Amino acid sequence: MNTRNSRITLIFGLALLVAACSSSVFKADVTRFHGQSVENYLGQSVIIRPIEGMTGNLEFSSYAAMVGQKLGELGFTPAGAKTPDIVAQLDYHITPIATASSSGASMSIGAGSFGRRSGVGGGVSFPVGESKQKTAYSRRLELVLIDQASGTRIWEGRAMSEGTQADPQIIIPLLAEALLSEFPGLSGQTVTVKINPEQ
């Protein structure tokens, strides 16, 4: 395939992606790993911290509270000032992956990112005509549950989705709900979880 045809394929492929992301149903690909004894930890106390090497701040605390609410619905309890039974390490990021016009005739690839692994990069654009643009984002949430006493990982998972919504106040609770649905989930398998945000 020559360069011109490759670009045409890329443009229309990403345009279809943006159109698909406009659906009101939130979808996430969820992968989890755990041992057979993970359910024995339900009801124990937990504290949520940033992944190793990252520093927590007010922004992180806000999103940690969202994830903590979901853990509470499962039966875990907040450790508060006490030594926790479980340390939950949290990571997240929301990154632009493509920008397309409403007609699918204008496209650019590349941008910065939002989240714990943010950065700024260049991009390649394919402007054709004038029309309203939409940006598609890659949204990712990762969570690891660690036994405080032994340091053993008892559960870990990630939820990934793509869409035009980038507000973390909206996206992170949805990713957390998808990630923790039917906890602990099938170990070692990737499943697609669908959520209707209006329900």
Short description:
This protein has helices at 3-21, 58-74, 168-179; strands at 26-34, 45-50, 77-78, 86-101, 107-109, 114-115, 124-126, 133-147, 153-163, 190-195. The radius of gyration is 19 Å and the shape is globular.
- Class inferred from helices and paired strands: alpha+beta
Q: Give the overall shape, derived from the CA principal axes.
A: globular
Mean pLDDT: 80
Instruction: Estimate the helix proportion, in percent.
Output: 10-25%
Poorly predicted residue ranges: 6-22, 104-109, 118-126
State the helix count.
3
Which strand-content bin applies to the residues? 35-45%
- Largest beta-sheet details: 10 strands, mixed
- Any idea what the radius of gyration is? 19 Å
The helix/strand order is HEEHEEEEEEEHE
Number of strands: 10
Distance between the termini: 45 Å
What do these coordinates show?
The protein has 199 residues and is α+β, with helices and mostly antiparallel strands. The protein contains 3 helices and 10 strands, in the order αββαβββββββαβ. It has helices spanning 3-21, 58-74, 168-179; strands at residues 26-34, 45-50, 77-78, 86-101, 107-109, 114-115, 124-126, 133-147, 153-163, 190-195. Strands 1, 2, 3, 4, 5, 6, 7, 8, 9 and 10 form a 10-stranded mixed β-sheet that branches. It is globular. Mean pLDDT is 80; it is low at 6-22, 104-109 and 118-126.
Topology:
Elements: H1 3-21, E1 26-34, E2 45-50, H2 58-74, E3 77-78, E4 86-101, E5 107-109, E6 114-115, E7 124-126, E8 133-147, E9 153-163, H3 168-179, E10 190-195
Parallel strand pairs: 2-3, 2-4
Antiparallel strand pairs: 1-9, 1-10, 4-5, 4-6, 4-8, 5-7, 8-9
Helix pairs in contact: 2-3
